[in-house]
Amino acid sequence: MTKITKIFVFFAVLLALAAPAIAGPTTPVRYTVSTVNAEMVLDSAVLRQQVEFLCSPETGGRATGTEGAQRVALWLEEQFRDLKLEALSGTFLHGFRTPSGAFGRNVMGYIRGSSAPEKYIVVMAHFDNLGTLNGTFYPGADSNASGVAALLGLARMFAEMRDCGKTYGHSLLFVALDAKEQAMAGADALRSFLGKNGMQASLVVNLDQLGSALAPINKNRPDYLLMLCENAGSERLALERANTEPDLGLDLAFDYYGSKDFTNLFYRRISEQRVFLEQGIPAVMFTSGITLNNNKSYDTPETLDYPLLHSRIRLIFHFLHRML
């Protein structure tokens, strides 16, 4: 290498090192947090796997106080840990006694809000079922393994939004309730826990039976969803707006198949949001309705429509995104 060549190489290296300074400061890359980030983590195959586990013989039908129900509670705790939800009072598992004396466990985890963390939107679904009675196994796929899978799907979607940098004003509390089949003792325990710890529920969202396409609102529209709510609330408008998201447009109803009496029954009397409505706390219930499979031994995972369950969870996610 000649002396002239060495000098040329020397100056070329200097210019390369100086290039960033000459070009000026680097413009920071802007990253837009979108709900698309969350939708990408929701998977119909995973929903089915979760329902199949919940309905497997090893869970025994998930009756409160049984070994199978304990196994499910521990599994739910593991799911919440994996999503890096925060525990309340240092634990995800919150025990209580039912009126019959059985020991139940609610599983709770939350994502902290930014501006009003003491206010919570509570999303809940009961995981217990009838169990095994007189030798007959009740798997409870639609009632309510489907609601639990929806709960986990929503928790995963909002955890993804958190990890992408999205913050919401209110906290978001996810609760897998035990003991619906024992006088809604899990919902009562949750209400008591919130009150004792000074936690204000601004809205309660109950997920109960969300996986079936067997009871459509209109016979030609199997892609449907029912939301029971107060007529004067803002929740209906939020759901209708959420339903305009791409690839949604589900057939919606805001009563129970047009019946005032059945709407009152399911909204105010026999479903767990009742516990909160009685305290003046706004609450809604999402459901795909009662079918002939409910509380039968043939309420099995293969009877559910997982792509439709996927769409319903997406819609509820967009609803919650607006309510937060």
What does this 3D model show about the protein?
The chain has helices spanning 3-23, 35-39, 44-54, 67-82, 141-163, 185-196, 235-242, 260-268, 274-277, 306-323, and strands at 93-97, 103-111, 116-126, 131-133, 136-138, 170-177, 200-207, 224-228, 251-253, 283-287. By secondary structure, the protein is α/β, with parallel strands linked by helices. It has one domain: Aminopeptidase, CATH 3.40.630.10. The strands form two sheets. Strands 1-2-6-3-7-10-8-9 form an eight-stranded mixed beta sheet, with helices on both faces. It has a two-stranded antiparallel sheet with strand order 4-5. Helix 3 (44-54) packs across helix 10 and helix 5 (141-163) crosses helix 10 (306-323). The model is unreliable at 3-24 (pLDDT under 50).
Overview features:
single chain; 324 residues; alpha/beta; Aminopeptidase; eight-stranded mixed beta sheet; two-stranded antiparallel sheet; 10 helices; 10 strands; 39% helix; disordered N terminus
List the helices and strands and how they pair.
Layout: H1 3-23, H2 35-39, H3 44-54, H4 67-82, E1 93-97, E2 103-111, E3 116-126, E4 131-133, E5 136-138, H5 141-163, E6 170-177, H6 185-196, E7 200-207, E8 224-228, H7 235-242, E9 251-253, H8 260-268, H9 274-277, E10 283-287, H10 306-323
Parallel strand pairs: 3-6, 3-7, 7-10, 8-9
Antiparallel strand pairs: 1-2, 2-6, 4-5, 8-10
State the share of residues found in helices, binned by percent: 25-40%
Number of structural domains = 1
Tally of helical runs: 10
Alpha-beta classification: alpha/beta
For the biggest sheet, the summary is: 8 strands, mixed
Q: What are the low-pLDDT stretches, counting only 5+ consecutive residues below 50?
A: 3-24
Counted beta strands: 10
